[in-house]
Write a structure and sequence with these properties.
Chain lengths: 325, 318
């Protein structure tokens, strides 16, 4: 299969959906001529024109709000927020408006929109450009939250998100944008709310998503050499969670580590641990469920510090081995 | 304008410090010595130097993502600033903040800001402190043309206006917010016109003329202390890309070249020489000093240690 980057896969998903459905359009800062801060939409202006690849002033609240308004009235906007840190500025529109309109209106409206935004550290951009805020939005009924880890998942999940009739927050990752992977050329969707087993194993389960999937797979390969057979499960959608898949993997291996880059306290790892602990998988556990998140600090600038405030192959390996102590 | 020679010399030196500092940072980027991103101030030196030279040391400023010039103009230790860029323990933020977060509270610099529009309401709050503590200092809030379209701009101006707070809102209009030209991002020609919506004065100045900026801010400072907020708009231009990853596709080579002709440093030098303030050789000496100050800062920064991982969780809470 041909290989393309994560960024190209996202663009391909948007382009295919925009060709398929006139109601779909892209709106955001510097998405046009500039092609997006990370080059995701390069060339889209040429194909779709200024009306459907709409550059905006620096106005995140109004960008997300305009997407809500357009969605409620029959369009299917994709809003790009340049860094997920700036979701904070449009959060009223996302949390108080988009997420609740359908329910508040007694099911009479729908808000089919996607907010695409890159999160994560590792680029040296420091505390206000590096956060992983996905857990915030998982606390909001009415939203869906997606965090793809591979180019193929990114394409299929984004197409599903665009076709979904609900507001979806789609967390991309700066450090994955240039990573290549096989991506089917044809039109396909990956249903939201469906986990993927990235590696099968029988001795322990690592549940992880986003950029940490690669690191965990690497650790799994290394530990295979020591006779430890690890299963890596990527929920892909964080809200709603594919609880069944997580529970059955936990029951199968009896040992669970949850890894994410977002700070550990209040992270989605706590939710996943609870889902497993409350389920019948509890009776199969051979060790306490373990979480490994980012340290509870803002992301520092200095490269050595930045690298080490989030899980690394070394700390993931140590955490896995703890499950066997 | 009757300015003391020492003041003019200080202004010229600071403009050169900024230019040399930025050139060094750009160079370090190409070498991979500085990581992350950075927004360079080359071409806009007259704005920061003109504005901060009209302030007193205890006046506050809030700065932006493009903040190196503001820091230097407000008076900063160049060594510690360069050390921060290199992520060193001796840096202003102990290596934890980097380019976009340099702050020097001891000199009234409330910090650069990674969030566009992030400083505007903070400036209002700082002015509120001044008012409540019965101080007669002022706050100068730097922000870009792009930031004038953020909701926080409008909320901040309105608050400052209704409470008549001593804030100088100082817009550096360099004609673009990233790739977005002002002609497309707003429906008025000048950012200064937006002042009318809040019933405060708005003025346009030549942001490439350091003395014009200086006298405008001096007047604005008096106005802010006696009557409340004022909006100044300095028209200027950034010579380099928005950040390190910018291919400049949204503007022409001619436009860039044209603005480089209007170099704020060259024209200030010309003024100083033609008006007999300094001789050419005196000006050359100031230039040499600027370069050597930056070289020393680099040396200091390079010799400084990186912060230890043991300190990474320090300073999350007071
Ligand atoms: C809230 C927010 N949105 C977007 C960005 C990304 N960004 C950084 S600087 C910038 C352009 C700012 O333009 P302007 O205010 O004119 O300042 P300039 O860069 O021209 O100095 C953008 C869009 C950001 N840092 N913060
Ligand atoms: Mg600008």
């Amino acid at each position: 299969m041909r290989e393309i980057t994560y960024a190209q896969a996202i663009k391909e998903a948007m382009c295919e959906e925009m060709r398929r459905d006139e109601r779909v359009f892209l709106i955001g800062e510097d998405v046009g001529l500039y092609g997006g801060a990370f080059g995701v939409s390069v060339g889209m202006l040429e194909e779709f024109g200024e009306e459907r690849v709409r550059d905006t002033p620096i106005s995140e609240a109004a960008v997300i709000g305009a997407a809500v308004g357009a969605a409620v009235t029959g369009m299917r906007p994709v809003a790009e927020i340049m860094f997920s840190d700036f979701l904070t500025i449009g959060t009223d529109q996302l949390v108080n408006q988009a997420a609740k309109i359908r329910y508040m209106f007694g099911g009479k409206a729908k808000v089919p929109m996607v907010v695409r935004t890159p999160g994560g550290s590792g680029t040296g951009a420091a505390a206000q450009h590096s956060q992983s805020l996905e857990a915030w939005f998982c606390h909001i009924p009415g939203l869906k939250v997606v965090a793809p880890s591979t180019p193929a998942d990114a394409k299929g999940l984004l197409k599903a998100a665009i076709r979904d009739d609900n507001p979806v927050v789609f967390f991309e990752q700066k450090l994955l944008y240039r990573k290549k992977g096989p991506v089917p050329q044809e039109d396909y969707v990956i249903p939201l709310g469906k986990a993927d087993i990235k590696r099968e194993g029988k001795d322990a389960t690592i549940i992880t998503y986003g950029r940490m999937v690669q690191a965990c797979l690497k650790v799994a390969e290394d530990l295979a050499g020591q006779g430890i057979d690890i299963e890596v499960v990527d929920p892909r959608t964080l809200l709603p969670l594919d609880k069944g898949a997580l529970i059955s993997s936990a029951a199968k291996t009896g040992r669970v580590l949850i890894v994410h880059e977002a700070v550990q306290t209040g992270g989605i790892g706590g939710e996943i641990a609870s889902v497993i602990a409350e389920s019948e998988a509890f009776y199969y556990l051979d060790a306490p469920i373990k979480r490994l998140g980012g340290l509870d600090v803002p992301i520092p600038y200095c490269p050595e510090l930045e690298k080490n405030v989030v899980p690394t192959e070394k700390t993931i390996t140590e955490a896995v081995l703890k499950l066997f102590e | 304008m009757d300015l003391e020679k020492s003041k003019l010399q200080d202004m010229y030196l600071k403009m050169l410090h900024i230019r040399r500092f930025e050139e060094k940072v750009a160079h370090f980027f190409t070498l991979g010595k500085v990581h992350g991103t950075t927004h360079l101030y080359v071409g806009e030196e007259a704005c920061a130097v003109g504005a901060c030279s009209a302030l007193e040391e205890k006046d506050y400023i809030t700065s932006t993502h493009r903040g190196h010039g503001h820091c230097i103009s407000k008076g900063i230790d160049l060594n510690r600033m360069m050390a921060e860029l290199l992520g060193k323990e001796t840096g202003y933020c102990k290596g934890k903040g980097g380019s976009m977060h340099i702050a020097d509270l001891s000199r009234g610099n409330l910090g650069a800001n990674g969030v566009v529009g992030g400083g505007q309401a903070i400036a209002v709050g700082a002015a509120l402190t001044l008012r409540m503590k019965k101080s007669d200092q002022v706050v100068l809030c730097f922000f870009g043309d792009g930031a004038s379209n953020a909701g926080s701009f409008h909320e901040a101006l309105n608050l400052a206006a209704i409470w008549k707070l001593p804030v100088i809102f100082f817009c550096e209009n360099n004609l673009y917010g990233m790739s977005m030209p002002v002609s497309k991002s707003m429906n008025v020609r000048d950012v200064a016109e937006k002042a009318a919506a809040y019933g405060i004065p708005g003025r346009v100045v030549d942001g490439n003329n350091v003395l014009e900026v200086y006298s405008a801010v001096l007047e604005a400072r008096e106005y802010a202390r006696s009557s409340g907020p004022i909006l100044l708009e300095a028209k200027t231009y950034r010579w380099l890309g928005h950040s390190k990853s910018d291919a400049n596709v949204y503007r022409t080579r001619e436009e860039i070249a044209d603005w480089k002709e209007r170099c704020p440093i060259k024209s200030f030098r010309k003024y100083l020489e033609e008006n007999g303030v300094f001789t050419a050789s005196e000006l050359d000496a100031i230039e040499r000093q600027a370069s050597s100050d930056i070289d020393k800062a680099v040396e200091f920064a390079e010799q400084s240690p990186y912060p230890s991982m043991d300190t990474v969780c320090d300073d999350v809470y007071a």
